[in-house]
């Protein structure tokens, strides 16, 4: 399976996927940590985190897949939402909680 197929399988296989540095329990950068905190505060119980530090192929190819250059990258229902800044903006507006609750209602 190609790395692009593996990325696609991750994105399509889980309602909420965060490609991040580290894990949800042990984030390895501040941006990833803040994104995880926002998702948890928004009620995300089914967060699937992919540690890009453990998979250099995913780390190298995800920006090509998503057309987004930085990490973390949040996908909800297969759609790229964005990075840390966008995740925090959506959290502050209440929009992230709505998006998360929709994934958990399915």
UniProtKB/TrEMBL annotation:
PROSITE patterns given in the database record: GLUTAREDOXIN_2 (PS51354)
InterPro entries: Glutaredoxin, GRX_PICOT-like, Monothiol_GRX, Monothiol_GRX-rel, Thioredoxin-like_sf
UniProt keyword list: 2Fe-2S, Iron, Iron-sulfur, Metal-binding, Redox-active center
Residue sites binding glutathione per the record: 21, 59, 71, 84-85
One annotated GO molecular function: metal ion binding
Signal peptide start and end residues: none
Binding-site positions, [2Fe-2S] cluster: 29
Keyword Metal-binding: yes
Pfam families attached to this UniProt entry: Glutaredoxin (PF00462)
Residue span(s) of domain Glutaredoxin: 16-81
Keyword Iron-sulfur: yes
Family recorded in the similarity comment: Belongs to the glutaredoxin family. Monothiol subfamily.
Name of the protein described by the UniProt record: Glutaredoxin
Source species: Lysobacter daejeonensis GH1-9
């Amino acid at each position: 399976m190609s790395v692009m197929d593996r990325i696609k399988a991750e994105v399509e296989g889980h309602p909420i996927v965060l490609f991040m540095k580290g894990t949800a329990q042990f984030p390895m950068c501040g941006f990833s940590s803040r994104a995880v905190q926002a998702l948890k505060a928004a009620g995300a119980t089914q967060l699937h985190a992919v540690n890009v530090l453990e998979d250099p192929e995913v780390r190298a190819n995800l920006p090509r897949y998503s057309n987004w250059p930085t990490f973390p990258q949040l996908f909800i229902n297969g759609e790229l939402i964005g990075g840390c800044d966008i995740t925090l903006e959506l959290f502050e507006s209440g929009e992230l909680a709505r998006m998360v609750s929709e994934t958990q209602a399915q």
